[in-house]
């Protein structure tokens, strides 16, 4: 099982295993400094992310939803009948709802989510919308090995749904490890339905992470507000700036908090020193061509059975099988 164990220090989204303080101190001691992107999603961060999705520049959610509206029937048809649908992250109700509406006799819906509140909300939403559908919530960190609940009847297959281009937050090695873990969980006959943002004009990509209203900047800076609140650190939010740059060679957005001056910040017993202009990496968002994604899947022992795209070919949804 050791290949399934994650040790994500830089760009990972693995929630605390050791304490928050240790994770943050380790990230600030590293060279270059980095903090894991799952730290964004406290209550305010989750609300800010919802607002990002409404910004005109942030095409990802809009395009993925358009894709699902256009292709949900075809996707559901590809997944087949008597499917157990496991969703990583309790995601937006919209996309999953579009999918479930077209699925023939789903066996159960299993939302996997580490935060109790969003998990409760998704259970309530789906129970109301699909009264006949067994919902089996799993409060867990999806980057760790999961013990899926026993289904109410035998499914034909288990499909793991991982929408939103969240896979883009993982560097290649970690993305491969996560896909391999999913491959094990879906079983012999299962599949993975995964959303991935596509490579395109870098100006469009960069704009999506630098919206004019500044919501993404607030989202990024909120991470420091969270640390101040939860760790009693003394980050001066006006002394750091959001920076999101598209690294074309790596094919990814790299988001940092950049120290605006030389400064020292107290984090527990640690005194973290920042140089003027020094970045703290807080997120990567990888972009793929169809070939890139097929190669990634292949590294995890998976094959792309089908791909769907929105009409503008901005976003892709891949169905992966063994
Ligand atoms: C939710 C991980 C897909 O990387 O595009 C949005 C998060 N960060 N704006 C992304 C995010 C900045 C988002 N994902």
TrEMBL record:
GO molecular function: L-histidine N(alpha)-methyltransferase activity
Full protein name: L-histidine N(Alpha)-methyltransferase
Source species: Fulvimonas yonginensis
Record GO biological process: methylation
Signal peptide as annotated in the record: none
Iron-sulfur is among the record's keywords: no
Keyword Lipid metabolism: no
Pfam families according to UniProt: Methyltransf_33
EC number(s) stated in the UniProt entry for this protein: 2.1.1.44
InterPro entries documented for this protein: EgtD, EgtD_Methyltrsf_superfamily, MeTrfase_dom, MeTrfase_EgtD-like, SAM-dependent_MTases_sf
Keyword set, alphabetical order: Methyltransferase, Transferase
Record-annotated Histidine-specific methyltransferase SAM-dependent domain positions: 23-320
């Amino acid at each position: 099982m050791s290949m399934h164990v994650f040790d994500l220090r830089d760009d990972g989204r693995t929630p605390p295993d050791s304490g928050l303080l240790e994770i943050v101190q380790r990230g600030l001691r590293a060279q270059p400094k980095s903090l894991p992107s799952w730290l964004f999603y406290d209550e305010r961060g989750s609300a800010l992310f919802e607002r990002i999705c409404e910004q005109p520049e942030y095409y990802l959610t809009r395009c993925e939803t358009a894709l699902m509206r256009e292709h949900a029937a075809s996707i559901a048809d590809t997944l087949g009948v008597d499917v157990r649908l496991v969703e990583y992250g309790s995601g937006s109700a919209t996309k999953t709802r579009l999918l479930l509406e077209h699925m023939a006799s789903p066996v159960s819906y299993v939302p996997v989510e580490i935060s109790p509140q969003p998990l409760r909300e998704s259970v309530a939403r789906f129970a109301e919308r699909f009264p006949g559908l067994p919902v089996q919530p799993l409060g867990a960190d999806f980057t760790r090995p999961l013990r899926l609940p026993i289904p109410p009847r035998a499914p034909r297959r288990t499909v793991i749904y991982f929408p939103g281009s969240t896979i883009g937050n993982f560097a290649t090695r970690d993305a491969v490890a996560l896909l391999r873990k999913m491959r094990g969980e879906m079983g012999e006959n299962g599949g993975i339905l995964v959303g991935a943002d596509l490579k395109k004009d870098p100006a469009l990509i960069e704009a999506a992470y630098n919206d004019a209203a500044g919501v993404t900047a607030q989202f990024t800076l909120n991470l420091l507000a969270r640390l101040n609140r939860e760790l009693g650190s003394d980050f001066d939010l006006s002394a750091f700036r959001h920076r999101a740059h598209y690294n074309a060679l790596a094919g990814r957005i790299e988001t940092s908090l950049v120290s605006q001056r030389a400064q020292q910040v107290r984090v527990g017993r640690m005194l973290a020193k920042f140089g003027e202009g020094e970045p703290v990496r807080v997120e990567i968002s990888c972009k793929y061509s169809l070939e890139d994604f097929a190669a990634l899947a292949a590294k995890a022992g998976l094959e792309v059975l089908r791909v769907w795209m929105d009409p503008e070919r901005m976003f892709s949804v891949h169905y992966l099988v063994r």
